[in-house]
């Protein structure tokens, strides 16, 4: 009788074990709560049932990225791509990982493929613009930042990074305009004040305005502004 009970209990446990889909769903819920390690545990359990579950692989890579395990996340995104090469998501996420690591050419390649699969995802334009900026390909970076701003012109960081590309393209007047727009949208961006102050002083010799911007940058935690203030401002 005991052997029969153990067998019956085993059947119940097997029947009640969560499915692959349920494990993925539970992992995504943990991600919504920013419980990244717990999410990875659920995704790993789902992958034990199906090692080619592209959703679990992609989501696991995102959770690893959020934990700062960026290099380790790249092969996980690659596995997700191999499982489902027509989804833009793992291409985009692997591009973000490469961007974070400074692998700009690899990031651009990933973003290009993501963009080809779903051109409506405007985040791709902005992130590819950052990678192009990293390679000092300023004109192409401007095209991507402009594309992102056409969809949503109220992106302060897009205006800020567009200003960097304009400066790289030797257009300080337009860069100052872009920085002004960025600061109107986000007045707490100390880096934008710093870049604005330095540009005013070095490109246009606007010392009074530049010093005011640098003082704002310093007040917002940009310590590099101090040396400019010491050297050029009363």
TrEMBL record:
The UniProt entry, under InterPro entries, shows: TPR-like_helical_dom_sf, TPR_rpt, Ycf3
Looking at the UniProt entry, the stretches that span the membrane are none
Gene3D superfamilies from the xrefs? Tetratricopeptide repeat domain
Does the record carry Repeat as a key word? yes
Q: Where are the TPR repeats?
A: 20-53, 88-121, 122-155
Q: Does the keyword Transferase apply?
A: no
What's in the keyword line of the UniProt record? Repeat, TPR repeat
Signal peptide segment: none
PROSITE patterns this protein is in? Answer: PROKAR_LIPOPROTEIN, TPR, TPR_REGION
Instruction: Enumerate the PANTHER family for this protein.
Output: TETRATRICOPEPTIDE REPEAT PROTEIN 6, UDP-N-ACETYLGLUCOSAMINE--PEPTIDE N-ACETYLGLUCOSAMINYLTRANSFERASE SPINDLY-RELATED
Please report the name of this protein according to its UniProt entry: Tetratricopeptide repeat protein
Source organism = Algoriphagus sediminis
